[in-house]
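Notes from hallway chat w/ T.B., transcribed later so I don't forget. T.B. wanted the structure written out for a chain they're using in a teaching module, and asked if we could keep both sequence and structure tokens in one place. Agreed to drop them here.
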Amino acid sequence: MSRRAPGQLRVLLASFALFAVACAEPVIPAIDAPATVTPTPAPTPTAAPTVENQPTPTPPPFAGEPGITADELRVGVIYDVGVDPVTDQISLSALQAVQAWAESVNADGGLALRTVVVEPIETRPLLEDHAEAIDRACNSDLFALVGSSARFDGLGVEQLESCLLPDYPANANSIDRIESAVTTLSNPITGNLWQAGWAANYAENQPEAAVAAATLLLDLPVSIADGERMIEAASAQGMEFVARPQISIDTDFAAVVEELDQAGTELVIWRADSGRLLELLQAFDDADVARPQIDCAQGCYSDVWISAAEQLGNEVSIWLPHVPLEESFDSPELNRYLFWLGLVHGVDHEPTSTGIMAWSAGLLFEAAVDIATGVGTPDYDPNNLTRSGVLAATETITEWDANGVHGLSNPADGTPSACYLAMTLSGGAWERSYPLRSGVLDCEPENLVELTLTAGAGAAPDPTATPVEPPDDEG
């Protein structure tokens, strides 16, 4: 399914090394010919047909098959607006990534000989109208959803399934969305098999902080459920939580700082909107107390957050399930994302972790379309494109790394990659903190934790649940 870079990109990519495996030392071969992206393992041959070597008739539109005409293949992207400027921009980066991916595909002939058209679908989390966004998607003549990123993504899942809309989100906040029959994540790090290597890293390298952790939860069922699941996964890796205050739109963060300080908090795991984190950082700055270590996962990995945080953001940590943008010289696929993002959006482009995963979602959908239409086989037929065919094709994709953007995952079974790295903000730039060597990710199988107590926890967890104790045996 992998595509060669278009003409204007080949010269740019020729100088970059081929990224061999995200979990290994980079290999930099001597390159004379233009560099190409290493194809992701797939159950079909990787050679793609072209109009020149495999003539095909112009595909007719499908009667009753939404989102397809003779010339177009329409996909939608659901993204949040109206939260705060920082959070909105990060959500918008998912749409930007899918628009950039579509342009890259169209420059190479489209999908199934059709031009990919992207339809933005806004949702407003403060109004909890994600179900309305799903309704618009199901009734907007779309073939699939690709690269969506929304806080309340569990609302409307029943309709999403009933309209059989193939769904490849950038990320998912609710277990309902993760386990939807039509939803596939390229790297499902927060499913019932949870990526918690970052917690093991704290337990091993910052043990005093790891046993005095806290997390702040938005007072919303989906956020509380997410927090309980995170606590179980992190506790299995040796972390202990001493506080878990709930916050709301009008939270007094000065009071939260006092609560965290009285609990002896040494580490805060932040999973709410990254824009709200700025309020907590300011409250710590205003208070006469030492600020604990702050871990923002992927939420703070964007230039817009760094700019908004200014000096308050120094020493905030993140962990990433993919190769960082700072090392894009090792990854032709990341460079392809950055090139098309800049080409399509100019100075307004915003590369983020969310954007990277939206790009990966686009590649996964592309792979499923290629498999469904038989790309690289004698049975190739662009007319053989249906939603059910693409959903069936997705179930055969059991090894996926988005051309080296992240470690191998199994989208079909919902198994995430075990690979991650950690970074810390210093002087306005993210710097590696673990592993220290460029191009290397920690890919130990023990990084994945199978949830038991909170497995399948949906929108209504027990609000009085206590932190999960670490298991006595190996976790």
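Follow-up for T.B.: The radius of gyration is 22 Å. Might be a good example for the class.
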